[in-house]
Design a protein that fits this description.
By secondary structure, the chain is α+β, with helices and mostly antiparallel strands. The chain has one domain: Anthranilate synthase (4-Layer Sandwich), CATH 3.60.120. The chain has helices at 15-21, 55-68, 127-143, 165-175, 228-240, 242-260, 298-305, 316-326, 377-395, and strands spanning 27-31, 34-39, 43-44, 75-80, 88-92, 95-99, 119-124, 148-159, 180-185, 195-201, 204-209, 212-216, 218-223, 263-267, 273-276, 280-284, 287-291, 313-314, 337-342, 347-351, 355-359, 362-372. The strands form 3 sheets. Strands 1, 2, 6, 7, 8, 9, 10, 18, 21 and 22 form a 10-stranded antiparallel β-sheet that branches. It has a 9-stranded antiparallel β-sheet with strand order 3-5-4-19-20-11-12-17-14, covered by helices on one side. Helix 3 crosses helix 9. The radius of gyration is 20 Å and the shape is globular.
């Protein structure tokens, strides 16, 4: 008979110290729930074809095995790409350190120097080609069978010097303390060049704590202005925008429908609220549920929800086909998910948006916009331009088209 698992260590650190301790190759996750920093590799979660439980089953089996072997704090951390056949990077780290929210300032964290530069910038595709892609999507919507599709475009930036991921992560954290900041090693096996997924997402895919489940989909957006009067006007317009409210309802309704499969009760607001980031305003719905089956971990729930219509579309198969047919490059980890899950099934997974993949001197970042009936191609270009600003400001690159 196996001995009981040791008690989970209580946080002994403060957020600033964990941010300062981050090194390339570590895993970092900061949210309103707390900060987690993980180092080293104890066990890699096996990949391969997924069963009905997807990566949640593989993570649960791995966690059970390492707990049985005496690991004092088994947690799976990492990232999963957007497409069904996308790569994923999940592992049990050798060391995990945590800090509770509001645990004290720790050492002062100052804004570091920009992470690289000077920069050259390449658009994939260029803005006009992206607008043409939006027109293709609108033709598909008009033809029937597709209600919404999220189309993304990329910027590939090259620095004259290697990019400092710790500097980039710190600048993201300090720029928007309310965001879900993350950094995950997504290096392909056998590749000697370290590749890091880093970002500051505004969107919680799902969290689980005990039997409490929370999801917070965002859909329907408008760029933030530097003028406060203009901001008030934009927020007011977003609240009543028929196009944005319809887009948001597609996402929120789908999240509610999925959670009802796993929860005894689901509570969703009757009306979305407007939340702001440093660069955008979003329609937001905080959806909560009471979990029915304790074996359903946070990663099981994330796999069931992903991809939501906030990053893919409705209906899902048609939206995936449209993305494959219109977008000129593979998204990789962009609009996938990153987070953690522990041996109890608790955890937190966020959408990998407002993010970039960094490798040596290159930074590849994406931004997307939801296309529905009534979308304007030039407005969608402007929305992606605004969403790029989160990463571009952290990189210290002037606005690009």
């Amino acid at each position: 008979m196996s001995s009981p698992a040791p008690a989970r260590p209580r946080p002994e650190h403060v957020p600033g110290d964990l941010l300062a301790a981050y090194l390339p190759g570590s895993f970092f996750h900061r949210s309103p729930r707390g900060t987690l920093l993980a180092d080293g590799v104890h066990t890699v979660v096996p990949g391969g074809p997924d069963g009905p439980g997807g990566p949640g089953d593989a993570a649960a089996a791995t966690l059970a095995a390492v707990a049985e072997a005496g690991h004092p704090d088994p947690v799976v951390v990492g990232a999963i790409g957007f497409a069904p056949d996308a790569p994923r990077s999940l592992l049990v780290p050798a060391l995990v350190r945590r800090a509770e929210p509001g645990a004290g300032p720790g050492r002062p964290v100052r804004v570091p120097e920009p992470p690289g530069g000077p920069w050259s910038v390449h658009h994939v595709p260029d803005p006009q080609e992206y607008a043409d892609g939006v027109r293709q999507a609108l033709d598909l919507i008009d033809a029937g069978g597709l209600e919404k599709v999220v189309l993304a475009r990329a910027l590939e930036l090259t620095s004259q010097a290697p990019v400092s991921v710790p500097n980039l992560l710190t600048r993201l954290v300090l720029a928007d303390p309310g965001a879900y900041a993350f950094a995950a090693d997504v290096t392909e096996p056998g590749d000697p060049a370290l590749r890091t997924l880093v970002g500051a997402s505004p969107e919680l895919l799902v969290s689980r704590e005990g039997d409490t489940v929370v999801a917070n989909p965002l859909a329907g957006s408008t760029p933030r202005s530097d003028d406060e009067d203009e901001n008030e006007a934009r927020v007011a317009a977003l609240r009543v925008s028929a196009k944005d409210r319809a887009e948001h309802a597609l996402v929120a309704d789908q999240v509610v429908a999925v959670l009802r499969e796993f929860c005894t009760e689901v509570d969703a607001p009757a009306e979305p609220e407007v939340i702001g980031t440093q660069t955008m305003w979003h329609l937001s719905s905080r959806i909560t549920g009471r979990l029915a089956d304790p074996s359903m971990s946070a990663l099981h729930l994330a796999h069931a929800l992903h991809p939501t219509p906030a990053v893919c579309g409705v209906p899902l198969p048609a939206a995936r086909d449209a993305i494959r047919g219109i977008e000129p490059s593979d998204r990789g980890y962009y609009s996938g998910m990153t987070g953690w899950v522990d041996a109890d099934g608790d955890g937190e997974w966020v959408l990998a948006i407002r993010s970039a993949e960094v490798c040596d001197r290159t930074v590849r970042l994406f931004a997307g916009a939801g296309v529905v009936a009534g979308s304007d191609p030039e407005s969608e270009v402007a929305e992606t331009r605004a969403k790029f600003r989160t990463m571009l400001r952290a990189i210290a690159v002037e606005a690009v088209a």
